[in-house]
Amino acid sequence: MKILVIGSGGREHALCWAIAQSPHCGELYCAPGNAGISRLAECVEIGPDDIGGLVDFATGNGIEFVVVGPEAPLVAGLADRLEAAGIPAFGPSAKAAELEGSKGFMKDLCAKYDISTADYETFDEPDAAKEYILRHRAPIVVKADGLAAGKGVIICRNKNEAYAAIDHIMTERAFGDAGGKVVIEEFLEGEEASFFALVDGTRALPLVSAQDHKAAYDGGEGPNTGGMGAYSPATVISEPMAKTIMDRVITPTIKGMAAEGRPYRGVLYVGLMITVNGPKVLEFNVRFGDPECQPMVMRLKSDLLEALFACAEGRLHEVKLEWRDQASLVVVMAAEGYPGYYAKGSEIRGLDKAEALDGVVVYHAGTKAAGKKILADGGRVLGVAARGETIAKAQELAYKAVDLIDWPQGFCRRDIGWRAIKR
Ligand code: AMP
Ligand code: GLY
Prior knowledge:
The structure is a single chain. α1 (10-20) runs parallel beside α10. 31% of the residues lie in helices and 28% in strands. The chain has four domains: 3-93, Rossmann fold; 125-180, ATP-grasp fold, A domain (Dna Ligase, domain 1, 2-Layer Sandwich); 191-318, ATP-grasp fold, B domain (D-amino Acid Aminotransferase, Chain A, domain 1), CATH 3.30.470.20; 327-422, Glycinamide Ribonucleotide Synthetase, Chain A, domain 4 (Alpha-Beta Complex), CATH 3.90.600.10. It is of the alpha+beta class. A hairpin with a 2-residue loop joins β15 (265-275) and β16 (278-285). The chain is built from 14 helices and 23 strands. The longest helix has 21 residues, at 239-259. Strands 10, 11, 14, 15, 16, 17, 19, 22 and 23 form a nine-stranded antiparallel β-sheet that branches. A five-stranded parallel β-sheet has the order 3-2-1-4-5. Bound molecules: adenosine monophosphate and glycine. Glycine (GLY) is lined by residues 212, 226-227, 285, 289-290, 292.
């Protein structure tokens, strides 16, 4: 099969890595890809926002299956356009991608189909939003309705911070059009974890759980990032809890989306707060997590390509997934300064030594090849992933690999997996 993967991050490297192992994988392309991906796939210079360019490439090159990594092209309708061109795609339609694209839509769906989430209200006008703050207790959470690259959520410790957040999002339009509406919701206390399932319109197949580390520095300090590391499974999600999540979150979401005329296809990523009253939905994402995808694919024994293709074609009942008994963990290495300003172009050495360790895979994110050299070319640059009998063993091996990488201009957290290891 001729396959095109869309995206250029560690997640897409992990997807290409798993897809390339399938006997069904013929020619593999990635748009735009990175230096690591270019060892597995032919990289084509088309950005994820160039929907027309991607569709033209797929139709013009006989692509038989497209796997979409990031959310933006899905929200912009890439899967619909490909379907119209007769090319199956892994990822939801634009109407279904609103589950991630609009927090207001997602919260209303939860309310209508009795899916447990924080109490909330949606506003399209700042004065009414402030009035709500006046009547409610802090801490409280103010969220831009639309996509804001993970930055549109402001946790407010007191009412003044909440008023300022409303002005920032709605009046100053700090996140552009994403701030046309705000969702204001109750602050939830607990431990965060993610759960993933494949969904083919009517059926769901659970994947596994994972836990991300969003803060830039050790101990959860510093600004929020796209994710500085992750491990799988998330031990806070026990087997009975995974079943509860399937029954009370995933299944009603699929039924609700179908009933709303927006049947969901693709991977459903649920961000949860595990509270004393059970799991509550923080967010839905319509794609794999980055970096959660990296440890996840390392635990999978079955053919990922076969599963994704069956999912896209509505044949999920034909798929049975087998997982390794091991845990896995990824440490993200980022450019000094990330998530703020960072420089590009520094050389990364020692990758071959890290990759030579048994049970280690180094996934590239923002990298670029210059002859034989690998250069940093983004904020999150590498994901050093390892498998082990336990999360502690996977952590030890991942940091052993990190220490073999010679990149003075990079940094990483040293505590990925701490919650699971402490438990
Ligand atoms: P979201 O994009 O909605 O998942 O929010 C981003 C991050 O903000 C989450 O990963 C949580 O850490 C935090 N967050 C969002 N909503 C809440 C809430 N209601 N209570 C506590 N923390 C929250
Ligand atoms: N790691 C968080 C995300 O992919 O949204």
